[in-house]
Here is the input.
Amino acid sequence: MKFSILTPHHNQPDFLKRCVKSVRDQVDATPFPGFTVSHLIQDSNATGWIPTQLRERLGVPDEALAAYQLGIHSEEDQGMYDALNRAFAKSDGEIIGHINCDEQYLPGTLAFVHECFQKDPGLQVLSGAVVITYPDGSYCCSRKPIRPGYHHTAVCHLSLFTAATFYRRTFLEELGVFFDTRFRAAGDADLFARILKSKARLKTSPRYFSLFAETGTNLALSEVAKQERKIRMQEVPAAFVKLRPLIEMHHQVKKLLHGAYFLRPFSYEFINDRLEREVVRVNEPTGIWRDRRRMRLYKRGWFDPHNPLTSHPPGKLSLQPVPHPHLLVVSAPRSGTHLMIDLILNNLPAYKRKPLFVELDKLLDLPGEMAALIQTSGYVIKTHYPVMENGEANPGLPEQLEQLAQKSLVLLIRRDPVATFRSALRMFPWLNQDAFELQVKKQNEFWRRFSPVEVRFEDLTQKTRAEALLRETAERTQTACKKRPVHPPPKARRKHIYFLKFLTRVMGRRSPRINTGIRLGESR
Here is the structure.
């Protein structure tokens, strides 16, 4: 039996190395005659590397394996799902698997899947359990599969993982469309909705098939995914949309009855950056994905500390033209972003608008929203790009960022990388220090092209330096600065800070003192 494993690739060679090794190792010591694996990598040509250059970058061994073939195809595509469709068209395996660059198969997975399909000729789709890890391979949680319901998949979310799912080729051909390229984030949910609607022979296995990396930037949590979920909801009766809370509750009860939350200790193998296998022992496994749950609630606005008076989104931009440019505040997370924003809003009256500032990172995936922002002027704009790697679903983003930066005065905040990472880790526990610091370096390189005003983190709390920064900003934007500047309150005045936060969220620009911060901040 021949497997075709499909992997879309977009400028992630370091992750891809580990993914390729996890697939290649599946053929070692496989007892089945005729067992072969063809791994097809569909590269988006983002780096300009030809397939031979990418193969060299991956460090694939020269020795040939009769049971394993690696194929690399490089061409521009219209996103991940278009890339997967292109790879599927080039494949010829009886069993199709799809694994992304930041995912890995666990040892023996394909041999087990081979045996399942051999024993059950009528089986069309097989899905297994997944270990959720952080990028460094450390354990996050476990996801045991249960058979998903059509309406839950349509109106809530996909409960299975494509990295742990395999399809019989003849079934996909009968289905007609592999991935619908209308979608950029919800294509897998759409595929499974069609699979369930077709009454396919689908089985689940409690065995762990693969590792899924929690990077904090997964498309399932993006604004694009949220919009595409609304599109998919239009395909089901309105009554089921209204019953969504009950459908989700029913799904959770099913998980409870199937033991998804009662897990035994286990071990798994993770391929690290040196392409060596590390064994991770999990003594207290959990079926609760706490990081994703918290992020979902945040994305839904339940814990969002801002409102239409303070930020866009959810606030609306004013189309009224103003004579001064945008102020683009660029920083890594936890680098004094809101200290900078508050200094501007409290001391440069021309920038005290409704809403008070723009969350650029929430717009990066939305070309229309980006275009509207470019047409306006005079807003304080906050961004962590590219540290948090948003904007993958917007192919025109580089050009739009260029246009926005040309209409803005860029304020680039720099802070000690170690201190920044330590602080960011409290909010984003999946972060890897080396990868985080590399992204901060890329951030500095990207924004320095636009002649920014470079601001040290320490300058924001040192009165003399902060006042000099405000004067320079006012001069370069041709706006007025208060004669008696207002500085951030010391951290020790906790009650005062929370009172200012409350006033800002209730009164917006009319608050006598602006405090947009999410947390209290660092020691002054």
Notes: Residues 520-524 have pLDDT under 50 and may be disordered. DSSP finds 18 helices and 17 strands in the chain. The chain has two domains: 2-297, 304-510. The two ends are 65 Å apart (CA to CA).
